[in-house]
Amino acid sequence: MEIKAKDAWGLLLVLLLGQLVAFSMAAASFASSLVANLGIDAPLTQSFFAYLLLTLVYVPILLRRRQKLRVPWYWYLALSFIDVQGNYLVVKAYQYSYITSVTLLDCWTVVWVIVLTWYALGTRYSFWQFLGAGTCVSGLGLVLLSDAKSPDEQDPSKIPLLGDALVIAGTVCFAFSNVGEEYCVKKKDRVEVVAMLGLFGLLVSTIQIFIFERKSLEAIAWSPTMLSLFAGYAIALLSFYSITPFVLQMSGAALFNLSLLTSDMWAVTVRVLFYQQQINWIYYMAFATVAIGLVIYSLNESSSGDAPTASTEAAARYQQLPSEDNSTGTASNLDSQESKQQDIC
């Protein structure tokens, strides 16, 4: 298989961004687990601060452009609603399960995303892509085996099966959200997608807080430690949502979620650094297996006729988006870019 230099650099960029997303997800997971360990049950409030930060960063950029929305607002509302529910279910799971179990079960998103992109977006995957995905999931099975060989002391307040069920339900929401974001960023505008996701996510989470979480919010003692945990979670998700559209446009939702699988490795590493727990040698086998799976999938991504566009071409189109203004010439450029994207896709 011949790989051009530009394609190789594009592949490395996608993999690097994917790992940054994975680290951000692991940081958010760690903050959520610490909040749960402190006895705080406020998943919607955690999401509220994350969406607030997204709104403060990206909505002013969108308003500065003074351009009409490229996607109807009600689609963003639906996408945000699904995303809020996914965040709620997964963060809620930390009340009943452990950080390694929650991050491990996130791998179910890969299965849902491949199914959704196959039927909804018409994406076709080759045998080697399925092999790469299966290899990554096998690597996470080794992570589970590693955790089983060094179990934590059982906490009577935990209900692992309930927590696992919440995570799996949350991965269904994330799959719909990721595929929807993939469609929007490939056909429309990255900044608009993130800004609207933050704005409508803020609206949905605020309404749900007043309905479901008001008493829990009133019971929180806002100490500096608590504020730093909520802030850390919000910053981690800001990084997550900022980098995610790049990965989605340059590759696709499937590779994006495959990259997220390595957040399990980051989660184990965080446990070692903060909880001073030793990890099993199987962990290193798992990390290598996931890495091999990512490479197999990435190298064969362009082999499918309906696969996402090449990384370098997508990156070139993306670099033009932030400099757009409300001029007539820019509007025509946007239409031209959109028509080119449709031709390619």
UniProtKB/TrEMBL annotation:
Keywords tagged on the record: Membrane, Transmembrane, Transmembrane helix, Transport
Membrane topology classification: Multi-pass membrane protein
Biased composition (Polar residues): 320-336
Keyword Lyase: no
Major localisation: membrane
Gene Ontology molecular function terms on file: transmembrane transporter activity
Transmembrane segments: 47-63, 98-121, 127-147, 159-179, 191-212, 219-241, 253-274, 281-299
InterPro entries: EmrE-like, SLC35_F1/F2/F6, SLC35F_Transporter
Coiled-coil residue spans: none
Pfam families: SLC35F
Subcellular localization: Membrane
Entry annotated with the keyword Heme: no
Region listing for Disordered, in residue ranges: 307-345
Gene Ontology CC entries for this record: membrane
Family to which this protein belongs: Belongs to the SLC35F solute transporter family.
Protein name (record): Solute carrier family 35 member F1
Higher taxonomy: Eukaryota, Viridiplantae, Streptophyta, Embryophyta, Tracheophyta
Gene: LOC100828387
